[in-house]
Amino acid sequence: MASKRRKDPLWARIVLIFGAVLLVASGGTLVAAQTLIASATSSITTDSLLDAAGAGGDEGNDISGAVNMLLAGIDARDKDSATTSVLADTIIILHIPETHDQAYLISIPRDWSVQIPPYEKTGFQGGIQKINSSFSVGYDGDGSEQEKRARGMESLANTLNKITGIKFNGAALIDFGGFEKIIHAMGGVDMCVDEQATSIHLGINAEGHLYQGWYDEAADQVRGLPAGYEPYVHKLGCRKMSSTLALDYARIRKSLSDGDYGRQRHQQQLMKAIAKQATSSGVLTDLGKLNGLVQAAGEAFILDTQGTPVVDFIYTLKGVAANDLMLIKTNNGQFRSVTDANGSSAETLDSLSMDMLAAAKDGTLGTFLIENPTFIAKSS
């Protein structure tokens, strides 16, 4: 019998910014806000995640203008899996314009075929691969888990920098466990299912009990469900979702009409739902829930602010509210297929998508979107 394997696509999120700035945004006193921020930031794991891709240097990390942050989540596999590499399952650029009153979430397709630059720390010589592999280029090799993850993030950032020219003011890496704790601490999130979707990980029985299975990619089916359980189906409509259901919904791509683009959209929608829930009165007026959220957010991240104190980031971006999050897609949401160097199906970005990334680099993304509104994804 085949050994059980799970593949957990994991998400990078900006909950830290919203979680730590809750009292600031809600008109709390400066002392209370500073206390909350200190609590949120004291347990954050910080590390160097950026090298040449960072916006620091001798001149320092200037966050008074437009800000670009790299957010990434990893596909962490069980250690007994035959596959040892870890891929960047989710890659998002958080762009804040110079006005600091808007936020754009740009999802980068994980199957984008790119030239990954050499990475000296692991001896990688460079080559054409899918961009999610750029994380494994740094992750592979000796070192602690944190050291491997930090190298993976650095390689991913360097790859994006070489392709787009974007220098990142900061970066954050989050794993599945941390993300689950954040949603659980808030008591779930409100999500709208815009297309019926069948889970490839979660089962349910006639009594409504859920069970976590795993997806056998080779056989294209869910494994590990007990007798009487069938794959869970997310029905159309809006509802409060638990952390288990919300995460499951945001992982699905197989049963969606637009595949990975649908998954990207749902991940972005979940980010926005988390931000809204984190700043709702139900969280702000419940000190136990608020403290739980702040603690979960503080423990969930590996963060690099390029030398800028976290508190400075928080106060600089405090004008960005949940409703100011705009969701951005590439290729007009259509998969543009190419065959990569290994003969596998991959994706390329069209010239207009590259222009959009150039606009993020130059701080003119707002103008670009006015002229090209089809790049804006549905927010719910």
Automatic annotation (TrEMBL):
Residues 88-279 form the Cell envelope-related transcriptional attenuator domain. InterPro entries: LytR/CpsA/Psr_CW_biosynth, LytR_CpsA_psr. It comes from the Bacteria. Belongs to the LytR/CpsA/Psr (LCP) family. This is LCP family protein required for cell wall assembly.
